[in-house]
Design goal:
- It is a single chain.
- By secondary structure, this protein is mainly β.
- The protein has one domain.
- 0% of the residues lie in helices and 44% in strands.
- The chain has strands spanning 5-11, 18-24, 31-36, 43-48, 53-58.
- The strands form two sheets. It has a three-stranded antiparallel sheet, with no helix packed on it. A two-stranded antiparallel sheet has the order 3-4.
- The model has no long low-confidence stretch (mean pLDDT 91).
- Bound molecules: zinc ion.
- Zinc ion binds next to loops.
Length: 73
């Protein structure tokens, strides 16, 4: 049986880094998993069966080195 992988390419809304997110699509119940942009730490969510793995395809493009600040209410 072949493992089924979900593969998403996404640009980070905050820093512009291009990310590749892979996660198992089978082998469990699909539910939202949180992952963070490795370049700035902004939180995202993906619906998959397994924990997502994030790879940076292109570094951030905003020219900053700071981390995304989550706004707490
Ligand atoms: Zn980012």
């Amino acid at each position: 049986m072949q493992p089924q992988l979900l593969c998403i390419e996404k640009a980070c809304d905050y820093c512009g880094a291009k990310l590749e997110v892979t996660a198992a699509e089978v082998g469990g119940e699909a539910r939202p998993h949180r992952y963070a942009c490795p370049q700035c730490g902004k939180d995202y969510e993906v619906t998959a069966a397994g924990n997502p793995h994030v790879r940076v395809l292109k570094p951030r493009t905003d020219g900053k080195t700071g981390s995304y600040q989550q706004t707490m209410f």
